[in-house]
Amino acid sequence: MQAIEPPAGAVVMSGLNFNPYFPGTGIAMARVLYDGLVDYEDGTPATTSQMAKDVVEFLNWAAEPEMDERKKMGWKVMAIGLTLFGLSVWVKRYKWSTIKTRKLVYNPPMSKADLNPSSPRPEVRMESTKRQS
C-alpha cells in the first residue's frame, strides 16, 4: 500500500498518514483505496477515483434500494399530472368560454304605452302622448 506524500510545508506527526481532506491533514487510518486494487471485467481502469465512485454508488443503493421504483413512479405521476393539467386547461378554455364571453346589457323597464302604442285604451294613449311632448 502506497501512502500519499504530503506537499512541501505540510507537517504530519509520526504514526499518522497524510489526508488532504481531513482537518490538520493527519489521520491515523491508512489509505484504503489505491490504484490497481481491483480488476474490472470490462477493462475499466481501477483508479482511486473510479473505485471511490463505485463505493459511493453501492452505499447509495444500500441506503435506498427502492430508489429505482420511486423514479418510475415519479415518471408515472408526472405523466398523469400533465394529462390532468392539459384536461383542466381544455375545460377552462372551451367549456367556460360561453360564460366568460357573455355580454350583459341593462334594459330599463318600459311603460305600458311603450309596450303597445296602438292600444285602444285612452289612458295608455294619453300617457304616451304626454311623454312625447
UniProtKB/TrEMBL annotation:
Residue ranges under compositional bias (Basic and acidic residues)? 122-133
Report the GO terms under cellular component.
mitochondrial inner membrane
As cofactor, the record names: heme c
Any Pfam family from its record, for instance, is Cytochrom_C1
The UniProt record lists the EC number as 7.1.1.8
Major localisation: mitochondrion
Tell me one GO molecular function of this protein: heme binding
BP terms from Gene Ontology:
mitochondrial electron transport, ubiquinol to cytochrome c
* Spans annotated as Disordered: 108-133
Compartment(s): Mitochondrion inner membrane
| Annotated catalysed reactions | a quinol + 2 Fe(III)-[cytochrome c](out) = a quinone + 2 Fe(II)-[cytochrome c](out) + 2 H(+)(out)
| Cofactor: how bound | Binds 1 heme c group covalently per subunit.
Kindly state which keywords UniProt assigns to this record, in alphabetical order: Electron transport, Heme, Iron, Membrane, Metal-binding, Mitochondrion, Mitochondrion inner membrane, Respiratory chain, Translocase, Transmembrane, Transmembrane helix, Transport
Write out the residues that bind heme c: 29
Q: Which top class of enzyme applies to this chain?
A: translocase
Please give the family membership noted in the entry: Belongs to the cytochrome c family.
What's the name of the protein? quinol--cytochrome-c reductase
**What organism does the UniProt record list as the source?**
Cryomyces minteri
